[in-house]
Amino acid sequence: MGGHNTSLLIVAVAACFLLFHDNNGSGDRTSRRSTTVAIAFAPPPTFPSRRHLLKGIMVSACKMHNNMGISYSQKTHHVLSSSTTGDIGTSESEKDPILVSNNSNESQMNLNNDNLMDGFDTVVNKRYACTRFQRYQEPTPNKDVNNSNVEAEDSAKTTNTAVPQAAISDQSVVKAAHKCLALSQRAPTGFNAQPYRVILVHSKEDKERLSQYCLGRNADRVRDSDCTAVFLADRECGRDGKRYTNFLVDNMDPPLQNEDDDNDEARPLFNSMAPSSTTVAKTNTSRTRRPLSSKALFKLRALIMLFSSGYPLPRFLNVPFSWGVRTAVSILSFFARCLQSLRLRFRILSKLFPSDIQLLPTLSSAETWAQKNTMLAAMIYMLACTSRGLATCPMEGIDAAGVRKVLGVPRGRYSIPLIVCAGTPYRRSVNEVSETDDVGMSHGDDGNFSPRYKLDEVVFGNAFGVACDWNE
User: Fold this and answer.
1) Helical packing angle, 50-64 and 74-85, nearest 10°
2) Is the Cα dihedral 168, 171, 177, 182 positive or negative?
C-alpha cells in the first residue's frame, strides 16, 4: 500500500501545482509526450497545457498501479479534458470505445436495413408473369437398338407429331427452384398448420402429361419451362391431427423441473412422444416453443378444425356439416354484435354484462381457408425465384381433375389454386416485340412493368374510401 499512497500523493501535488501555476498554454506543443512519466515529476522548460499535463499524470499513475485495480479509460480522459478546458470535442482516439462500438453497430445495422430494403424492392419490381420460356434442350429421338419394331417407331412419331414434346429441363434451374420451395415454407399459415403440398414437375414425360390438361398457351409454358410447381391446398387438414401434434412436440423445449404446473402436465406427454428431444442440442437458428400440455394441444387441433372447416369426415358429410357449423357461428356472432352494441348504449345492460361480450370469428369454407394459406407460400416461392434470376408465370387455366389424375393427387381432399412455371425467359431479338397471352394482354418483362391501379384507388386510410393523408 506504500507505493499506492505515494502515487496518490504525487497526483495530488501535481494537481495543486496545476491549480496555482499561471500557465497561458503557450509553448511548443509538437514536442510533448503526454503519456510519459517525466511529466508528473519534472516540468519541462516550456510548460504544456493543463489538460495534457493532467492526462499524463493519470496515465502514469494508472500504469504504475494497474495490478491494484486502478485503470485509465478513454472515457475518463474525455471527462477530464472537458472539465479542464471546456472543450467537449474529442478526436477518434479519445472517444469511448464502447460508445464508438455502439455507434458503429447502429450504423452497420442501418446500412444492412437499407440494403435489405433496396434488395427486396428490387426483387418485387423485377417479378413479372413470363409469357414465354426459353427451351433448355430439345429432346433427341429415341435410338434404342433393342427396339426393332418399325410399327412402334411409326406410332411414336405419330404421337410426337400430335402432341408437342416438352423440352429437357436444366437441372441447375430445377435445383434452384427446389431451394425456393424450401424458402416458401417460411410463409405464415394459420396456427402453423401449413395446409398445402407442392409437386415440382420437371421431367420431360411428366411435363408432357401435365401440359395436356393446361388450357391454351399455358400448355406451351409448361413444356418450355424447366419446372412447374403445382400447389395443392389441403381442404381436410384436420386429418393430420396426429402428424401436427408430433410436429409440435418435436419442436418443444424440454419441460424444466422448476416450472409451473402446466409444464408438469406437459412433461409426461413430452417424455412419451419425444424421448430423444432432450438430447438434441438446440442451435442458434432453431425456433423453440414452450412445452404444451395435452389440453393445449387438443385446443389447437380443435381451433384448426373450426377455422379451416377441415373436419376428418367423408367428403359427402364434411360439406354439409361444415356449412352447418359456419351458419350457426354466423347467427351467434350476429346476436353477440347486437348485444355488444346495446351494452355500450344502455347503462342497465352494462350492469348486467360488466365485461365485454365475446365476439365470434367469421369462418371460411374449407377450400377458401386452405387456398388463402397456400397462396402465401406461392408468393414467397415466386419472389425467391426472382431473386435467383428465374422467371415465373402463375397460371390458373387448368383442368384440375385432369391434373390430379396425371399426378396421382388424392381426389376430394386437395384443390389446385394455381400452378407456377419457372425457368429462363425467352431471349427475343431486338426487333421482336413482347408477346401477349391468349386474350391479348401483355404482362411486361424484365424492366417493363405491367400497369396497376393508382395507389389511392386501392389503399385507404382508417376507413373504406378515405384517402390517406400523407404524401410519399
Assistant:
1) 150
2) positive
The 10s digit of each residue's pLDDT in 116-173 is 898 999 999 999 999 899 999 998 875 444 444 444 444 444 444 566 899 999 999 9
Picking from 277, 164, 276, 270, the residue whose alpha carbon sits closest to that of residue 221 is 164
Planar angle of CA 138, 142, 148, nearest 5 degrees? 165
Q: CA–CA separation, 292 vs 269, rounded Å?
A: 9
Residue in the structure block whose three cell numbers are 408438469: 264
Name the CA radius of gyration of the chain, rounded: 37
Residues 245-303: tens digit of each pLDDT: 999 888 887 655 544 545 555 555 555 554 444 333 443 344 556 778 889 899 999 99
pLDDT at 203 over 50: yes
Query: Whole-angstrom distance between the N-terminal and C-terminal Cα of the chain?
Result: 68
Q: What is the 3-state secondary structure (H, E, C) of the chain?
A: CHHHHHHHHHHHHHHHHHHHCCCCCCCCCCCCCCCCCHHHHCCCCCCCCHHHHHHHHHHHHHHHCHHHCCCCCHHHHHHHHHHHHCCCCCCHHHCCHHHHHHHHHHHHHHHHHHHHHHHHHHHHHHCCECCCECCCECCCCCCCCCCCCHHHHHHHHHHHHHCCCCCECCHHHHHHHHHHHHHHCCCCCHHHCCCEEEEEECCHHHHHHHHCCECCCHHHHHHHCCEEEEEEEECCHHHHHHHHHHHHHHCECCCCCCCCHHHHHHHHHHHHHCCCHHHCCCCCCCCCECCCCHHHHHHHHHHHHHHHCCCCCCHHHHHHHHHHHHHHHHHHHHHHHHHHHHHHHCHHHHHHCCCCCCCCCCCCCHHHHHHHHHHHHHHHHHHHHHHCCCEEEEECCECHHHHHHHHCCCCCCEEEEEEEEEECECCCCCCCCCCCCCCCCCCCECCECCCCCCHHHCCCCCCCCCCCCCCC
Q: Report the percentage of the chain scoring pLDDT > 90.
A: 42
pTM over 0.85: no
Chain centroid to CA 465: how far?
31
CA 30 to chain centre: 56
The pLDDT value recorded for residue 73 is 41
Contacts of 147 (CB under 8 A, 6+ apart): 153
**Identity at 192, one-letter amino acid code:** N
